[in-house]
What we know:
- Chains A, B: Pathway: Cofactor biosynthesis; molybdopterin biosynthesis.
- Two copies of one chain form a homodimer.
- Chain A is an alpha/beta fold.
- Chain A has helices spanning 4-13, 58-62, 154-162, 201-211, 225-238, 256-262, 298-316, 369-372; strands at 20-24, 37-38, 48-49, 53-56, 67-74, 89-92, 104-107, 111-114, 117-120, 132-133, 144-146, 167-171, 176-181, 185-186, 197-198, 216-221, 241-245, 266-270, 274-275, 281-285, 289-294, 326-329, 333-334, 340-349, 356-360, 377-381, 387-388, 393-398.
- The first copy, chain A, is 20% helix and 30% strand.
- The interface between A and B is large, with 122 and 122 residues.
Amino acid sequence: MIDIQQATELVLASARSFGTEKVPLQECLGRILAQDMAADRDFPPFHRVTMDGIAILGEAYESGLRTFPLQGTQAAGAPQLSLNDKAGALEVMTGAMLPAGADTVIRYEDVKIEHGQATIVEGAAVKTGQNVHLQGTDRRQSDIIVKAGAPLSPAELGVAATVGLSHLYVQRMPRAVIVSTGDELVPVSAAPAPYQIRTSNAYTIQAALRQWGAAAELLHISDELEATRAELKRCLQAYDFILLSGGVSKGKFDYVPAALTDLGVKKHLHKVKQRPGKPFWFGELPGQCTVFALPGNPVSSFMCTQRYVGPWLRKCLGQPAFPGAFAMLDRDFHFRPDLTYFLQVRLYSDAESGRLMASPVEGKGSGDLANLADADAFLELPRGQDTFPKGGVYPVYRYR
Amino acid sequence: MIDIQQATELVLASARSFGTEKVPLQECLGRILAQDMAADRDFPPFHRVTMDGIAILGEAYESGLRTFPLQGTQAAGAPQLSLNDKAGALEVMTGAMLPAGADTVIRYEDVKIEHGQATIVEGAAVKTGQNVHLQGTDRRQSDIIVKAGAPLSPAELGVAATVGLSHLYVQRMPRAVIVSTGDELVPVSAAPAPYQIRTSNAYTIQAALRQWGAAAELLHISDELEATRAELKRCLQAYDFILLSGGVSKGKFDYVPAALTDLGVKKHLHKVKQRPGKPFWFGELPGQCTVFALPGNPVSSFMCTQRYVGPWLRKCLGQPAFPGAFAMLDRDFHFRPDLTYFLQVRLYSDAESGRLMASPVEGKGSGDLANLADADAFLELPRGQDTFPKGGVYPVYRYR
């Protein structure tokens, strides 16, 4: 049995790119940029007025002038006017081009306008160049503003709009299918017999993938060798990765391992020194399809999704595999077995210290699906110690 | 001019519920649950086998028996069998009902099966009751597992599936429209004249709303009184809230304030002691439509979206208005004016302390759209001090 470090290496070694695609701007939130975004013009593209008021030549004010004849109005979105009289002024609106010949804007609050003349009020502070956002101050034309590889937040989408990119090249998301097995499972809308339960892991895993931007279809395969083989064969061709929930243990009706082997899937690992999720199985049809066979227990399958599938997916997209989030235990915790333990915790941010704190919410084992709803995350407690004192800091995988 | 505490109170006081709706399970991620979810059966619903192996009566083992004749196989998803012979065994599969008359499961790894008999191997540890998940251990039928008001993460969706809820009642999200004004704006796909710029704030704000699960339409209104009035009138009827970007300053062509007043919108606040975002305006057509008029500068409008629109939306949905996240400044910072300052920062989690750390990424003012792409969040630095030493902890509003 291997440890989580080895398992992580094996999983991440099979990460591969799924190419790029061109997507409309408004559908790009959360995607990974696959092109550079450059400034198509200077930022701002012209000397931009930042206050409604009047535009003058600063020299005129400095030489003592306080009253300026108004010679017109420079609206936002209108071609540039000129201030022809060095002792005159133009009214200007926020967002307008600064008129040629002017260099200073005085806001309306600081002037009094009467009979076509603007007089600067007593006590107004005027500095030459004020209230003007100079062309090219923020960025120069052709500067790279956002580099390929950036995750697209609202900020990047605003930049894309500004530089005229109505579509963006982004990393293509791999196509996934979540396969549930086990004849004890019935659909959500069915009334289960006493010996049956409803499919639920598939929904949990599907939602986790959706949080990462990946869509996944759901498929149920019955406990029958031929059906298992035929369906898996189709899935290996049609999808970039398969998440199997259940069906890889030693049961008589667990046809999955045999079918996968038959179909050319290479096993990279089976069983990891961890709890939950010890029976985790991972393999691939090289270059074609990656297969995560998750243990059937709900806590185990969800934990393996967070700890292996998420990092693999991020690496496929060219991102750091691990989010690099850490949290501090807020009370002592004990765990005896020589396994990495993924402790369910509730998280909170401490207003005094800025620390992310983790409260254990233990639950009743890997079958205790309901407990996941009381927690926010898994805290990764290392092997090789059995006491985890209050104040210890560990990696955390949060799902809300 | 009011401070941010007063502004927050005024904004949150206008929060209201938008009712509930019934949504298919697979579309519920991130929504707010508006019903209790109760266990329809015990969790687990039967004594559930947790390992593939054999089921026996523990007493028989305790009395020294080590070899058990096999009397059949209890598959998962099959009706319950009975262990009629107290000295016999049944093969059992993970997820199956424990056969009546058995109470203990011994995994295949610990038995040797030959000639229809299972013999427990030397050194196997067997405890009566092992590898059985007893009916009702986790939750009892009718127990409330998730309460109304819970945000729906993958965990809650798994619970919903298990208890047979293919649709859930969730809080309805308010309908939003983002209105941009200003004749200097042209569409993203247009080639702007030298005095024009492309619409961008609307995309940034729309993406922020989408992160919170709210869909928003985009609308541009030209700088013309009649058009402004007619479009705003329609929007006040058709949407639950309006976000205006620009058009509420003192400019000659800023028809928005007059049009809103004409249409019966009550102003609750205008101008807040904060930077950026000082000209923020907020009002409502009581009980009908809430209006956020955001300053036109990109950093200002985005910051006001994070600091006022997000909390208002969360309160409307019955959630805590503020996410309660705090971060620690990783270097000294100075800010003189007597205004609450929203500092753009890049965040990282410190692996030693579990602290969320914030590095200032200042940018070149409220027009510097590109700088938002270099930051992750706004850190809220209070008024009344001008030095913010390294190690200070403040509320943080993150957008990635």
